[in-house]
Specification:
Distance between the termini: 42 Å
Largest sheet: 12 strands, mixed
Number of helices: 4
Order of helices and strands: EEEEEHEEEEHEEHEEEEEEEEH
Oligomer: single chain
Radius of gyration: 22 Å
Number of strands: 19
Amino acid sequence: MRLTNAAGQVYAPTADGNGFVLKTGGSTFTSHPGGKNDPGALDIEADIITFNAATPEGNSAIHIHGVSLGMLGQASNLNGANLMLFGGMKPGLPLATAQAPQAGILAQGQVFQAYGNWQGTDQTLDLIFNPGSLDSELDPFIVFNWQPGVPLAQALASTLSQAFPGFKQKISIGNLVQSYASAGAYENVWQFADVLKGLTKKIGAAVFGPNYPGVQIACVGNMVTAYDTTVKTPVKMLAFQDLAGQPTWIDPATVSFKTVLRADISLGTQIQLPLGAPALFAQTTPAAAVPGTPASSKTSFQGNFVVSSVHHYMHLRQSDGGNSWASVFTANPNSLTNN
């Protein structure tokens, strides 16, 4: 994890660990110094939610156990600090290979509130943050003007450039046009995203089918993303061993699946679930099935899906391993490839 001030200097522990000093480069806390696993690293808990702006779900939290009293006393200095949280499996750790690294940035944003806590023998540094930017930066006055015959992607690019001049853009949406003008002024990105989702859901359903979810907007770090489920992008293939438990339908056209903590799947990523169980777990004889039922290893999750929400949760010292070091994703069928 890296905490920095407005000038980009890193809040790093002092030599004796009894406070923070500002340095150039490095990390604030790490369990992988010099590329090697540190079994004595501080315990960390985190609950990180990344979501679409049309369905806000609150802030995220990080709790770092075992910090010094000096760090607790300086906790308020971290209010407003820029935060980058790294995690996932690097090559050499379980489930990661040089061909398919899973480690990277889990969340990037700014600290909304930092405070120290001391209960019994447990001292923690608690960070509440928005995995985007502070609310003041995500609260611009947005003016939207979508003229007849103009592709929505073009109208959105202009709108987002004016509302977020310092942010990068990633727009991956289908060719949506309309025969009349849609214009409006919105108090913040949450309000605009909700209206845009409802508007495009109606228009897109006539083109891509009734399961079309509409255009989604997400603000993560310094990136504003607009996407739907119609654009072909590189597909992230998931292997059977990547999954923790069974994928399941949780809503019409919405699937949920769980993996060990990973950073290589984000909002808008197109994924493909395993098409069948590996031979080791497949039923190999009709006698292995319920009487009268043919043996089969075919999954009910065919085709590609587009990730619509990401939830990372972790507790480094928890004894149940991957169950407390995991990522949970929801995704929608890709409207273009599955129709």
